[in-house]
Specification:
Oligomer: heterodimer
Number of strands of chain A: 0
Structural class of chain B: mainly alpha
Number of helices of chain B: 7
Largest sheet of chain B: none
Number of domains of chain A: 1
Structural class of chain A: mainly alpha
Distance between the termini of chain B: 39 Å
Shape of chain A: elongated
Radius of gyration of chain A: 18 Å
Helix content of chain B: over 70%
Number of helices of chain A: 10
Radius of gyration of chain B: 20 Å
Distance between the termini of chain A: 29 Å
Order of helices and strands of chain A: HHHHHHHHHH
Helix content of chain A: over 70%
Chain lengths: ~220, ~240
C-alpha cells in the first residue's frame, strides 16, 4: 500500500479508537441543533427558515472540535518527525490528514444532516440542497482548519486560538452553503451558490496543504 | 529590491526613520487639522445633511485598515522569502494599528448608520466584511503573542497573514454576494460632489501620514526593546 494510504488509514483508525471517532462530533452537532429550537422557539416556519444557517454553523463548530488534534498528537509524541522523514512529501501528509479529518467528521456530519433537517421541518428539495452543500463544503472546513491546526500545533492552549484564526476565513463556506439552502427555500435554484461553494472548496483543498506543510516544517525547526 | 534591503538593516532603518519621522509627524498633524477644519466647513449634503462630516473620518479609516493589512501581507511575503527580521517586526507593528483603524471604521460607520439607515448596525456587506477583518487582525495578533519562540511566531504569523491575504478578497466577494446595502465607492467614479473632495483628500493624507508615523514609531520601539534586552542579557551573563 502507498505511504499516503497507510497514513490515511492510520489516522482514521486513531480517530475511531481514541475519542470515539465521529460519535463525539455527531453528538455535538445534534446537540447544537437541539438547543436552537429551545432558544428561538418551536415555530416550525421559523425553524425551516433558519435551518440551513443553523445546521451549517453547527457543522463548522462540530468539525472544529477535533481539529486541534490534527497535528498536535503526532507532534507531541514525536511521530510527526518520523512522518516528516518519510519519502512522502509533507504536503501529501497534510492532504492525507485533511482527508482523514473529513472522512471522520465532515462526511458523517453530512450523512446525519437530513435527519436534523427533518427536525427543522425542512422540505425535500432544501434538505437535498443542504446535504449537497455540506458534502461539497465540509472538505473546505477540514482544509482551512488544517492550516489553523498546523499553525497552532506547538501551543498548549491552541484550542482557543484555532477558532479565532480559522472561523473568519470560513465565512464564505457558511455564506454559500446556507445561501444555497435559502435560495431553494425561496423557490430559486441553489446551483450558483453550490458552484461558488465548490470553487472555494476546490481552491482550499488544493492550496491549504502547502500552507499547512510550511507551518509544520517551521514547527519541526526546519 | 536593493533599496529595500539596505533599509532592512535595523541600523540603517533607525537612521532613516529617525530623519523622516519629524516630517511625517508634523505633516500628519497639519493635514489632520486642515482636514478636520474642511470636514466641518463643507455644506450639508442634500440627502445626508451634516452627517456627511462623519464620512471624512470614516472613509479614510476604512481605507487605512486595508492599507495596514496589505502592508502586513507584503512584509510577511518579504519575511518568508528573504527572511529579513525587520520585516517581521514591521508586520507585527502594523497589526494593532490596522485593528484600530478597523474599529474606527466600524464605530464611525455605526454612528453614521443610525441617522441614515435607522440602526447602528445593519448586516450590510461592507460592515460585515470589516467585522470579519477585525477578527482576522485579532487572530493574527493572538498567534503572534501565543507562540513563545520569536522566530517561529514570526514565520507562523507570516503564513497566516498570507493565507488571510488570499482569503480576504474571497470573503469580501462572498459577503457582497450575501447582502449589499452599503453605497458603492464614489471617489474614483466621480460621483462624489466636488465640494467634498478637498476635505476627503486632506483627511486621507492625514490618516496615511499618521499611519506611517505610528508604524515607524512602533518599529523603532521594537528594535530598541530588542537592543535593550540584548544588552541586559549581556550584563547578566
Amino acid at each position: 500500500m502507498s505511504s499516503f494510504g497507510t497514513l490515511l488509514l492510520r489516522d482514521l483508525r486513531l480517530a475511531a479508537r481514541s475519542g470515539g471517532g465521529a460519535a463525539l462530533a455527531l453528538s455535538f452537532f445534534a446537540l447544537v441543533a437541539t438547543l436552537v429550537p429551545l432558544g428561538v422557539g418551536a415555530d416550525l416556519k421559523l425553524l425551516a427558515r433558519v435551518a440551513g444557517g443553523v445546521l451549517w454553523v453547527a457543522a463548522v463548530l462540530s468539525a472544529l472540535l477535533s481539529l486541534d488534534r490534527l497535528f498536535q498528537g503526532d507532534f507531541e509524541d514525536g511521530s510527526l518527525e518520523v512522518i516528516a522523514l518519510s519519502p512522502l512529501a509533507l504536503e501529501m501528509v497534510a492532504l492525507a490528514k485533511i482527508l482523514a479529518h473529513w472522512l471522520s467528521t465532515g462526511l458523517p456530519l453530512t450523512l446525519l444532516s437530513p435527519l436534523l433537517a427533518l427536525l427543522f421541518n425542512l422540505d425535500v428539495a432544501p434538505t437535498l440542497t443542504l446535504f449537497l452543500s455540506l458534502l461539497i463544503g465540509t472538505p473546505a472546513v477540514s482544509a482551512v482548519g488544517a492550516i489553523g491546526a498546523s499553525l497552532t500545533l506547538s501551543l498548549k492552549r491552541g484550542g482557543l486560538i484555532l477558532p479565532l484564526i480559522i472561523l473568519p476565513l470560513l465565512a464564505p463556506v457558511v455564506i454559500f452553503g446556507a445561501g444555497a439552502v435559502a435560495l431553494v427555500l425561496d423557490g430559486m435554484s441553489g446551483g450558483g451558490a453550490l458552484g461558488l461553494l465548490a470553487a472555494f472548496a476546490f481552491g482550499a483543498v488544493l492550496l491549504s496543504p502547502f500552507a499547512a506543510a510550511a507551518s509544520v516544517r517551521l514547527n519541526l525547526g526546519g | 529590491m536593493q533599496f529595500l534591503f539596505r533599509y532592512a538593516n535595523p541600523h540603517n532603518f533607525m537612521r532613516l526613520s529617525g530623519a523622516v519621522l519629524p516630517f511625517t509627524a508634523i505633516g500628519a498633524a497639519l493635514a489632520l487639522i486642515a482636514g478636520i477644519y474642511f470636514s466641518f466647513s463643507v455644506p450639508p449634503d442634500y440627502q445626508q445633511g451634516t452627517t456627511i462630516t462623519i464620512l471624512f473620518i470614516h472613509v479614510p479609516a476604512a481605507i487605512m485598515a486595508m492599507v495596514a493589512y496589505s502592508s502586513i501581507a507584503v512584509c510577511s511575503l518579504l519575511s518568508l522569502v528573504w527572511r529579513h527580521p525587520l520585516s517581521d517586526t514591521a508586520a507585527r507593528a502594523a497589526a494593532p494599528l490596522g485593528a484600530m483603524f478597523t474599529v474606527m471604521g466600524l464605530i464611525t460607520g455605526a454612528l453614521w448608520g443610525k441617522p441614515m439607515w435607522g440602526a447602528y448596525w445593519v448586516w450590510d456587506a461592507r460592515l460585515t466584511s470589516f467585522l470579519l477583518l477585525l477578527f482576522i487582525y485579532l487572530g493574527y495578533m493572538a498567534l503572534w503573542s501565543a507562540i513563545e519562540d520569536e522566530i517561529k511566531a514570526a514565520r507562523a504569523a507570516a503564513i497566516l497573514a498570507l493565507v488571510g491575504a488570499v482569503n480576504i478578497p474571497i470573503i469580501k466577494f462572498s459577503v457582497e454576494w450575501w447582502n449589499t446595502l452599503h453605497q458603492g465607492e464614489t471617489i474614483t467614479t466621480g460621483k462624489l460632489a466636488s465640494v467634498y473632495v478637498p476635505a476627503l483628500l486632506t483627511m486621507m493624507l492625514g490618516y496615511f501620514l499618521l499611519f506611517i508615523t505610528l508604524w515607524m514609531v512602533r518599529i523603532r520601539t521594537a528594535i530598541l526593546e530588542r537592543r535593550a534586552r540584548n544588552l541586559m542579557q549581556g550584563v547578566a551573563s
